[in-house]
Write a structure and sequence with these properties.
About 35% of the residues lie in helices and about 20% in strands. The protein has about 425 residues and is α+β, with helices and mostly antiparallel strands. The strands form four sheets. Strands 3, 4, 5, 6, 7, 8, 15, 16 and 17 form a nine-stranded mixed β-sheet that branches. Strands 11-13-9-14 form a four-stranded antiparallel β-sheet, covered by helices on one side. Strands 1-2 form a two-stranded antiparallel sheet. A hairpin with a 5-residue loop joins strand 1 and strand 2. Helix 3 crosses helix 13. The two termini are about 30 Å apart. It binds (2S)-amino(hydroxy)ethanoic acid and manganese (II) ion (2 copies). One manganese (II) ion binds next to loops.
């Protein structure tokens, strides 16, 4: 169904800076990219550790504010700590919003999130260069804590805004060091008592378009630089607590042990089996062990399951099957098991009218069809889709690797993404 999308027009491919409204020079895509690149990058792994409300996060946020100010945009932080940069009157209504997030997973790549934010500023510069007149307000947003790397829940900034996370639930979120979200926000200079649903803000938005690096190889395989999102698989995170009995690794006979690591390990294999049977995915990517000594049988193994499937029924079957297997293994080893669902995001079908409009805008000069892809990855655009029309653009990722320092995208493809986003914003922000 996919034909090649249009080759990118060579706008600012030289990396030359653009000129802002007051004649000020604004950094090019490449300059913005280079500036962000060292922020929060771990010297050993080469991956990013930009966790919510940490120093690296503050540096990213300072960068966003500078970009807004360099372009003469009205900068504001909303009650949930999300950053906004406005062109036009934020209160006028029917605003066209673009953006993404700047935080990362542990040792994440450079593109997941930042590509959308950098491309948003670059797209605005391109439109100004084209002399585009906007009939609607335009905003660029950086949603806070999208990855949930620190507090375990993804998309905290957009969930709070959309009322999908209550203040009480948010206040209970705690990181691995026992620091609660309110204390972390306070330490970063934000007011945790101000957080909560923001329906007035959402009511002023007519459309949100998030550009994101593709987290798969569909575009690489189809030979397209840019695609449009169709849907996000339902997904969630479950915590499995296997409790046994700590004991000496050298003196405790195998038959006398209540070792929770065994049931945990068997559960990991069961997850793989259930997911494969159902055509879904299931991952135990995070584990904590107590007391965590080489020569001690663990008393507690806590493993976090991330599972996703194309539809709710399949996901329920997979997670139900994994839990059933885990209980059988736990019983066999005299282990107590608790399973807690920590978060869940139902299937997201992006707004069909907006999606079709994106396809029309991107194909209008060439008559070519832009591929429409589903994804297993969660996004702020997915969270907001319950409140406002949202859409996503994906930029080709040649290896498909994501949530890893090896994540990549070619510069030409990134610039094609900027042009596509500019075309979309131009079309949407005019009446
Ligand atoms: O985990 C996810 O799907 C996302 O990247 N937050
Ligand atoms: Mn991610
Ligand atoms: Mn992302």
């Amino acid at each position: 169904m996919t034909q090649r999308s249009a080759a990118p027009r060579p706008v600012r491919a030289d990396g030359a800076p653009s000129v802002g409204p007051a004649g000020h020079r604004t950094p090019s895509f490449q300059e913005m990219w280079r500036e962000l690149l060292p922020v929060g990058r771990h010297p050993d792994s080469g991956g990013y550790r930009r966790y919510a409300w940490t120093g690296a996060d503050a540096e990213c946020r300072a960068w966003f504010k500078e970009q807004a100010e360099a372009r003469g945009l009205a900068y504001e932080v909303d009650r949930n700590g999300n950053q906004w940069a406005w062109l036009g009157d934020p209160t006028a209504g029917d605003a066209v919003v673009t953006g993404s997030h700047l935080d990362s997973v542990p040792d994440g790549g450079a593109f997941d999130g930042p590509l959308g934010v950098v491309s948003s500023f670059a797209a605005l510069d391109e439109l100004r260069g084209r002399g585009t007149r906007f009939d609607k307000p335009l905003a660029i947003v950086n949603f806070g804590d999208e990855e949930g790397a620190r507090f375990g829940l993804a998309c905290v900034g957009s969930r709070l805004t959309a009322g999908q996370l209550t203040v009480e639930q948010a206040h209970r979120l705690t990181d691995a060091d026992g620091v609660t979200l309110p204390r972390a926000m306070e330490a970063a200079g934000y007011d945790p008592d101000a957080i909560g649903a923001d329906p007035e803000r959402l009511a002023r938005i007519g459309a949100f378009v998030e550009l994101h690096v593709e987290q798969g190889r569909a575009l690489d395989l189809s030979g397209d630089r840019v695609g449009i999102a169709s849907a996000i698989w339902p997904h969630g995170r479950w915590r499995f607590d296997f409790r046994g009995e700590a004991n000496h690794a050298g003196t405790t006979r195998l038959v006398d042990r209540r070792d929770p690591m065994l049931s945990y390990a068997e559960t990991v294999l069961a997850a793989r089996r259930e997911a494969a049977l159902a055509g879904a995915v299931a991952t135990f990517g995070k584990i904590s062990v107590e007391p965590n000594g080489v020569n001690a049988i663990p008393s507690l193994v806590r493993g976090w399951l991330d599972s996703r499937a194309a539809d709710q029924g399949t996901l329920d079957t997979v997670v139900g099957g994994i839990e059933k297997a885990a209980r059988e293994y736990a019983d066999a080893h005299g282990i107590d098991l608790d399973v807690v669902r920590e978060s869940f995001t139902p299937v997201v079908e992006f707004d069909h009218a907006l999606r079709d409009e994106l396809g029309r805008l991107l194909g209008k000069d060439t008559g070519l069809t832009v591929p429409v892809l589903g994804t297993g990855a969660g996004h702020d655009a997915g969270i907001l889709s319950g409140s406002i029309p949202t859409a996503m653009l994906f930029v080709r990722n040649p290896t498909g690797v994501s949530h890893s320092p090896a994540e990549s995208a070619a510069e030409d493809d990134c610039l094609a993404g900027v042009h596509a986003l500019a075309d979309v914003l131009e079309g949407l922000a005019r009446t």
